[in-house]
Amino acid sequence: MRIEIPRETERLGAVLIHSTQKVFELDSGLSHDQDSQETESVIQRIPYDALYEIEKQMAIVVPMRNERLKLVEGVLCGIPHQCLTIIVSNSPREPVDRFAIEQEAFENFSRFIQKDVLVLHQKDPVLAEACREAGYDHILDAETGLIKSGKAEGMILGTLLARISGRKYVGFIDADNYFPGAVQEYIREYAAGFLMSKSPYTMVRIAWHSKPKIVRDSLFFAKWGRTSRRTNEFLNRLIAEYTGFETEIIKTGNAGEHALTMELAMLMDYSSGYSIEPYHYINLFEKFGGLPGSALAQEMARQHVEIFQIESRNPHMHDVKGNEHIDEMTYSAMQVIYQSAICPDGLKQLLGREIEQLKQRNQEQVWPEISIYPALADVNLDRFRQVVEVHPFAQALAGV
Ligand code: GDD
Ligand code: MG
User: Fold this and answer.
1) CA of 218 to the centre of ligand 2 (A)
2) 37-68: string of b/e by CB count within 10 Å (b at 16+)?
3) Which of 4, 64, 150, 242 could covalently link to 175 via disulfide, CB atoms 3.0 to 4.6 Å apart?
4) What does the pLDDT look like over 325-341, one tens digit per residue?
5) Does the C-beta of 226 come closer than 6 Å to ligand 1?
């Protein structure tokens, strides 16, 4: 891959946010192809073999609920063979057991590609028991005792499984992506970000180059989604309130496609449902931003957290899920910023008004409360592993 070096970096305490980086070549050859004359001041060349070595240590978690199998199969096809694939499904099991259908399809797929793919259901009682036994009952539903519904809850579970598999990196890919080539590109970009980072605490977020839509019978390549535009605006405003300088550095407030080093994944708190991605920024600022009221750990002040935002080349095309869904996502993003103790007064008032308007517009909708889940650092991983080991899918985990 040939990729631009970040042109600027915004800093809040120990959190470094790099500006978006353009990709110039998706594949720039192998390391031994390197021309020794090549200089690297603006653009960095990352050989394919270096990306491959990172991908070998990466688990890719695919959260899904009720997606069309053809779409998900395309996504699986885009995941490089060397990555561990973990599918966390929350599809209904009644009246038709959709999960059983998915499981069969993915198990066949896994035979064709000669690779074990982990397929599990979010509501599997064994997984809930593993969380409980390991001291992490925060994502459990008090009434059913099972893991709560929600994209974030599925991702947290996937992260724990990736951790016990021993992989060093965990990346997330939505299951409703129409382009397998885009999936492959995102994962290469995750690897490129990790290679460029100087810190063990790194997050890579994908900024889509474009999102194609049909407008008046022709294709229009939109740059921003409706939710992302607002979330970025609020997060940038939050930074500006602390630094005193207006900024547009954040372009990935809602990046569903993102990856983390395992060290960082274990250190962060998470939030529920669709608010998880904007909350990444908020929580990093809360914990490592050095803002009033937050104690900055010595280790972190030395190491820094690095956030890379890489602009992908493939258009991003996924399933369209309607206006209420967009409003719910916008609401979740605004809510996690609004709720945070670091949200400055002016921004809080603005968000309060916006949230009220959204609620007015969606009076019939019942949106789930936003919960904050503590970091996974204290989870008893040995106990978690012992409980899940009885499960048939654990075979795939043992094989890695
Ligand atoms: N395991 C699990 N459990 N997966 C879920 C659940 C759940 O309860 N709910 C949704 N998913 C899966 C979907 O099947 C899909 O693969 C992925 O999570 C994203 O959900 P979508 O419903 O497709 O969300 P979106 O496309 O509108 O939004 C995505 O992009 C945003 C950025 O624009 C999400 O990734 C957002 O989180 C992201 O902010
Ligand atoms: Mg989607």
Assistant:
1) 22
2) eeeeeebbbbbbebbeebbbbbbbbbbbbebe
3) 64
4) 888 999 999 999 999 99
5) no
Residue 39 pLDDT exceeds 60: yes
Q: Relative to the CA of 150, which ligand 1 atom is closest?
A: 8
Average pLDDT of the segment spanning 288-302: 74
Residue 274 beta carbon below 6 angstroms from any ligand 1 atom: yes
Cα distances from 248 to residues 30, 63, 205, 252, 288, in angstroms, run 35, 30, 16, 11, 20
Both tokens of residue 67?
Answer: 């997606």
Tokens of 349: 């008032």
| Mean of per-residue pLDDT scores for the chain | 92
Look at strands 84-89 and 58-64 and give their pairing.
Answer: parallel
CA 119 from chain center: how many Å? 19
Interval 238-269: pLDDT, tens: 999 999 999 999 999 999 999 999 999 999 99
Decide: 318 in ligand 1 pocket, CB within 6 A: yes
For ion ligand 2, residues whose CB falls within 5 Å = 176, 318
